Please model this.
Amino acid sequence: MVGVVGPVTMAMSLWEVVSLPPVGLLLLLCLPLCLCQQPLVNFESPFPPLLECTRKVHPIVPYKALSPWMSGFSRPGVKDFSQLTLDLTRNQLIVGARNHLFRLSLSNASLLQAVEWGPDEDTKRSCQSKGKTEDECQNYIRVLLITGRRIFTCGTNAFTPVCTTRQIGNISRVMDTVNGVARCPYDPRHNSTAMVTEKGELYAATVIDFSGRDPVIYRSLGNMPPLRTAQYNSKWLNDPHFISVYEVGLFTYFFLRENAVEHDCGRTVFSRVARVCKNDVGGRFLLEDTWTTFMKARLNCSRSGEIPFYYNELQSTFYLPEQDLIYGIFTTNVNSISASAVCAFNLSAITQAFNGPFRYQENPRTSWLSTPNPIPNFQVGNDRGPGENQTERSLQDAQRLFLMSDVVQPVSTDPLLYQDNIRFSKLVVDIVQGRDTLYHVMYIGTGE
Ligand SMILES: *[C@@H]1O[C@H](CO)[C@@H](O)[C@H](O)[C@H]1NC(C)=O
Ligand SMILES: *[C@@H]1O[C@H](CO)[C@@H](O)[C@H](O)[C@H]1NC(C)=O
Ligand SMILES: *[C@@H]1O[C@H](CO)[C@@H](O)[C@H](O)[C@H]1NC(C)=O
Ligand SMILES: *[C@@H]1O[C@H](CO)[C@@H](O)[C@H](O)[C@H]1NC(C)=O
Ligand SMILES: *[C@@H]1O[C@H](CO)[C@@H](O)[C@H](O)[C@H]1NC(C)=O
Ligand SMILES: *[C@@H]1O[C@H](CO)[C@@H](O)[C@H](O)[C@H]1NC(C)=O
Model:
């Protein structure tokens, strides 16, 4: 295997390789080294674990040890290599960095094309006059998506977000330029996520204003009407950190963490999955230009016990569509002891929570109560679009009922993997055919 590693991913100092048969962890594989581990979950194994596979530690491989299999790319003066997108039909890697886009060969990270894309002088000056630093007033690429033969990419552009559509084989060829507001954050530090559906609609989760106080899940472009989450409503979204977005069937799923509005005592962050219907057309009079199908549920990643130990803060996800599984990295809060875990969620468990009751607070002085879903398993109209009714869900219900009462539980009671004194940051899961069964191999990186 050849890893093409840019400066950002090179910051990862640890790789872990853990394999997971459908029912639990069995053994570890590692690229050239073969480090192994006893099963974390004991179950009848079709074959005994190999002798060298009885080590109980999680293997840690410094990235330097992988250097013979890595190729690097860097450019003097260029930093923040934050966006990477694979163009597998051309065997290329598209890279978004500060004020630059690059096209690299996937086999050895050699440069094929470099394009400078910085803010113009006027935009920079106006950004600095608003009190931002020279460093902040640059173009940080935050959206980089392939749609057919085109690339859709957005940058912060000195706090004046902008998006361009470019030709995939020639990234200096700009076919279209659109406003980046609600598609890309203003502030390079803000976490956002975006996706283009098969039909060409852009779903973005970001902040919509200069000060970063107006978070939004927003749909635009394509043929459906633009829709957003309710504005300045902390029950819909409360200081969210958006992680990822996936299109699955009739829905778009967002993964995030946010301040838990339903948690009464003290500030706590919960991890969430949120969902909207792709054929939502918004309300009329009520919820105009706003989602009528927005729902969200808490994700539980914890160690069981009399008092469960919660890993409340989702950091990244990986979706395995073949298995309908979402893997997530969860950590403790940065202000408490470091601890990390990996939990996987079955899409059917997520759907089940969304078909269950809601949790609702009549007014700020009353407590949150469970209330039945008036139309479980509702969708907006049918595949051909909404029916004669705006939505099968009443708009009044849609405005107040969006937090699910049930918590989404992971596939196993305890995390698939957990470790103290470390912060996992990213993971990738690969399915590998073993002798008798398929293994899920997790590659995990840390920020340290
Ligand atoms: C990198 O790979 C490309 C395509 O596989 C090849 O044409 C090129 O010669 C390689 N460059 C280096 C420096 O190895
Ligand atoms: C790429 O696009 C630019 C701008 O449109 C153009 O000047 C250039 O000739 C194109 N390069 C190739 C190889 O087509
Ligand atoms: C974005 O996410 C990272 C990793 O979770 C976090 O360290 C950072 O503080 C977040 N950015 C903002 C503006 O909160
Ligand atoms: C989360 O999972 C743990 C372990 O299975 C369980 O003890 C706990 O009750 C769950 N918490 C919630 C809020 O569902
Ligand atoms: C996910 O749920 C489906 C339907 O309930 C089930 O068939 C499947 O085995 C589950 N997958 C895992 C990995 O638990
Ligand atoms: C429209 O909504 C009403 C009340 O919710 C319902 O009785 C009726 O069946 C709906 N019509 C269609 C075509 O969905």
